[in-house]
Amino acid sequence: MSTATTTAPDLTGTPARRSRRSNLAPLAGRILVLLVALFLTLGPVVWTLWVAFTPTDEAGRRTLSFAAFSDAFAKVNMMRLFWNSILVTALCAVGQMLTAALAGYAFARLRFRGRNALFAVILATMMVPMQVTIVPVFMLIRGMGLSDTLLALILPAIPTAFGTFLMRQYFLGIPDSLAEAAQIDGATPWQVFWKVYLPLSTPGLAIVGILAFNAIWNEFFRPLIMTISSENFTLPLGLVSLQGQLGTGSMSTVLAGVVLSMIPALVVFVFGQRPLREGLTAGSVK
Q1: Would you list the domain boundaries of the chain?
Q2: pLDDT band at 7, cuts 50/70/90?
Q3: Helix or strand run (H / E) with residue 283
Q4: Is-annotated flag, keyword Ribonucleoprotein (predicted)?
Q5: Are residues 204 and 165 in contact, defined by beta-carbon separation less than 8 angstroms?
């Protein structure tokens, strides 16, 4: 008499199990890519903070202290550098927002001869690097008697081709019926711009202002050419002196100055990320 033996079914080869296993490889690859990106992004920042807060003592050992920051304030006039950078950056950002709004409105809503050709020329200037135009700009600034002044850093940075293009696109997305309704109520062209179009374009203005702040705050080349005296140096240019003669300065002191220069940019990012996000996503959902 034979007895039938039953064996449990092998579930390891089921389609669901095989599908789960096949999805692990792409998931592991994505996690690896994200970890590498995280290391490349935060690695330099973590290393900068570590070296700035752990300067080496006389015995060559690293100890946690604020000595590098005190040394940075002792070697350069940090408050003067901060004031120059804040003044130049704020005026340039406000100037770019104002000129971009006016120029963008003109190219979007006003009709005049040669409008498209002039706008194409403005866009073409975005392809010209600063190093090409710095010599004629310097000669013009010197002819105006503004060389080695903060105005030499402010005036050339106010016009913005990218800001003009961005604001033009925002104004083109605003319905014409709003301007027509305001004109029926007796609004002048300036009132239409100031009370109708400008309030609706605040996301675009936020993008222009934040991008201008980041660009001007970290700018090194133009202050290097336009300024000579140390009292007119901005923060990126003044931090170079922390390196000492032939780079013999303390690395912790240099990176302490870098950490201090990161604080305003971090504050602007914290308070400006919401309008920046709204500006970048404006128009994506109707």
Answers
A1: 21-67, 75-281
A2: low
A3: none
A4: no
A5: no
Average of pLDDT values for 223-240? 89
Alpha-helix runs per DSSP H in 125-250: 130-143, 151-154, 161-172, 176-184, 189-192, 198-200, 202-217, 221-226, 235-238
What single-letter DSSP state applies at residue 144? T
Separation CA 200–CA 191 (nearest Å): 13
Residue 1 pLDDT > 70, yes or no?
no
CB atoms within 10 A of CB 265: 14
CB-CB contact of 238 with 228 (8 Å):
no
3-state helix, strand, coil in the chain (%, to 5): 75, 0, 25
The answer to whether 62 and 47 are in contact (CB under 8 A) is no
170 and 261 Cβ atoms separated by less than 8 Å:
no
Q: Which of the four pLDDT bands, split at 50, 70 and 90, describes residue 285?
A: very low
CATH node for 75-281: 1.10.3720.10
